[in-house]
Design goal:
By secondary structure, the chain is an alpha/beta fold. 42% of the residues lie in helices and 15% in strands.
Length: 554
């Protein structure tokens, strides 16, 4: 579990990014073009001259609702987060545009928070809550891992922290999602109450009392504490279904380096599962060699399910999520993209690495080793066939379609160097990679020519030590030219059938060219499983739309 801490400013930026629709807020506050904030003007009238001087002036001029919102905020000195989110969501903004709006809010001295929060929330009625709030307010840095959101949306401490900007704000969609979860939880509670009347006691009171005692005395680790919700939920579900409960701590065995000891884990699970009975197993945590609870860094439930399927030699591993399989493109970019009916493990690995997010990529390995198919299904549409994943497929589901999926990621940088006669010199690329290795930086792609080579890597990985890295490369590789290019997006067209279709690359690049999209980088592996190209960040969404409309919807 990361011990990283954020400043209040970074947490505020994370809130901004969540409101902007980012799935993974970084808290990054580095904005080279961001204007220095003016002295807060306070409440008052917002005239046209002031509007025209704002960082988001162009957006304000085009959107009457945004203009009205800023005028309202200037008068009151604050805006409701939900109201602001509703307007911004409808505008479909890029990251830089979103930054300009929040810069404008800061320039105008407009605060964003929950409307009338302090008057409506009876925080003062809860002495423990007030004590917790007092401790947090004294901290200059707040550990985000300690602020674990519960599904109790009305929790006073959580709501107060949300108000003062110590935790990210939720978007309207996220609030609805939490309300849906809570509604389903209430229904489950009613069924469990009925089961308890029949004599079931899935969670003994003395177990809860012991947990409270350990929490109060701070005798429990953070990782064990965050795993208890999953643990108790699984026990309740097992009791409701009449299935066996198998604690992940009793069979998911970690090595000291945090990797899973598959041999010991598989043996432990097989020794506990009762043949012929259903079992409920919590996910995302296990046990270290010293007996302490350890959680997966991310995607732990997917990985736990895959490990269980591999341990029990399952016929198929069904992974139930909220979409009907793996989609051919990001639904936030392409309207109503089709689901992929069949995908190989190699294709899935390429899609996951390049940005597709449905199944955690590390969950592929346990089932692939046992040649167990994976079926991605939709909990909300159980009759949909979803996506089937396996090593190979005997037939061809759609012989006319040669692209399986289109995905990508933004915010890469390209370090390029050229050197006369490089092709005849040994070790130039090795020297570049050695410099990056010293700084703990992994390279994503290495496109090259006869006398030039480039490395493509995430911008966040090099921005802190960029000038040092460039100086070391210049000293050790001694190139004739050395450049770095930022704001690059990487797009990947993935498909196992592309290798057997001549002219695919030409058709892809022609489609992009006709749409006015400039290609900054091209890379393709020898197995021709994918074609990867770089474009400017501003062209990222359009590039994916062009490929989808040109090669999938036809």
């Amino acid at each position: 579990m990361s011990e990283e801490k954020y400043t209040a400013e970074q947490l505020e930026r994370m809130a901004d990014q969540l409101l902007a629709g980012d799935s993974a807020p970084t808290g990054d506050t580095k904005h080279e073009d961001r204007p220095a904030p003016q002295d807060k003007p306070g409440k008052g009238v917002l005239d046209e001259k002031t509007l025209a001087s704002l960082p988001a002036a162009a957006l304000v001029a085009k959107n009457e609702k945004l203009k009205e919102l800023l005028v309202k905020g200037r008068k009151k000195g604050r805006l409701d987060a939900g109201e602001l989110s509703e307007v911004l969501d409808a505008m479909d903004l890029e990251g830089e545009q979103m930054d300009s709006i929040y810069d404008s809010l800061e320039t105008l001295g407009i605060e964003v928070g929950a409307e009338d929060f302090l008057t409506d929330l009876p925080v003062e009625d809860s002495e423990p809550a007030m004590e917790e709030i007092a401790e947090i307010e004294e901290e200059e840095l707040v550990d985000p891992n300690a602020l674990v959101d519960s599904f109790n949306i009305d929790d006073p401490v959580r709501m107060y922290l949300k108000e003062i900007g110590k935790v990210p704000l939720l978007t309207a969609d996220q609030e609805v999602e939490l309300a849906t979860v809570m509604s389903a939880g209430r229904e489950a509670q009613e069924r469990l109450a009925q089961a308890e009347q029949e004599g079931a006691d899935p969670i003994p009171e003395d177990e809860l009392a012991e947990l409270k005692k350990r929490i109060d005395s701070k005798a429990i680790s953070q990782e064990e504490l965050v795993s208890r919700g999953e643990y108790f939920s699984a026990k309740l579900m097992a009791a409701y279904l009449g299935f066996q409960f198998v604690d992940a701590a009793d069979w998911v065995m970690f090595n000291m380096d945090g990797t899973v000891n598959e041999e010991e884990s598989y043996q432990a699970l097989n020794s506990q599962v009762l043949v012929g009975y259903g079992a409920v197993i919590p996910g995302f945590y296990g046990t270290m060699p010293d007996g302490s609870i350890h959680t997966f860094s991310r995607g732990g439930s997917d990985i736990t399910g895959a490990l269980a399927a591999a341990a029990l030699d399952a016929d198929v591993y069904e992974n139930w999520t909220d979409v009907s399989g793996i989609l051919m493109a990001d639904p936030r970019i392409v309207d109503d993209p089709q689901a992929i009916p069949e995908v190989t493990y190699d294709e899935l690995r390429e899609l996951s690495y390049s940005g597709a997010q449905v199944l955690h990529e590390d969950s592929i390995f346990p089932v692939r080793e046992k040649n167990i198919p994976v079926n991605i299904r939709n909990t909300n549409d159980p009759d949909a066939p979803g996506t089937m994943i396996q090593e190979t497929f005997p037939g061809d589901h759609d012989p006319e379609r040669f692209i399986t999926g289109i995905t990508g990621k933004k915010d890469f940088s390209i370090i390029s160097l050229s050197k006369r006669g490089m092709s005849n010199q040994v070790g130039v690329l090795r020297k570049v990679l050695t410099v990056l290795e010293r700084h703990g930086i992994s390279v994503d792609y290495v496109p090259n020519g006869i006398d030039n080579v480039s490395v493509v890597l995430p911008t966040w990985a090099i921005e802190k030590d960029l000038y040092t890295i460039m100086a070391e490369i210049k000293k050790e590789a001694q190139p004739d030219t050395l450049d770095v290019h930022h704001h690059i997006a990487v797009v990947a067209a993935v498909g196992r059938k592309m290798a057997f279709r001549p002219g695919i690359s030409g058709k892809i690049f022609a489609a992009l060219g006709e749409s006015g999209i400039n290609i900054r980088m091209i890379n393709q592996g020898p197995d021709e499983l994918n074609i990867i190209f770089g474009v400017d960040n501003k062209d990222f969404k359009e590039a994916i739309r062009v490929l989808y409309s040109s090669f999938i919807t036809k």
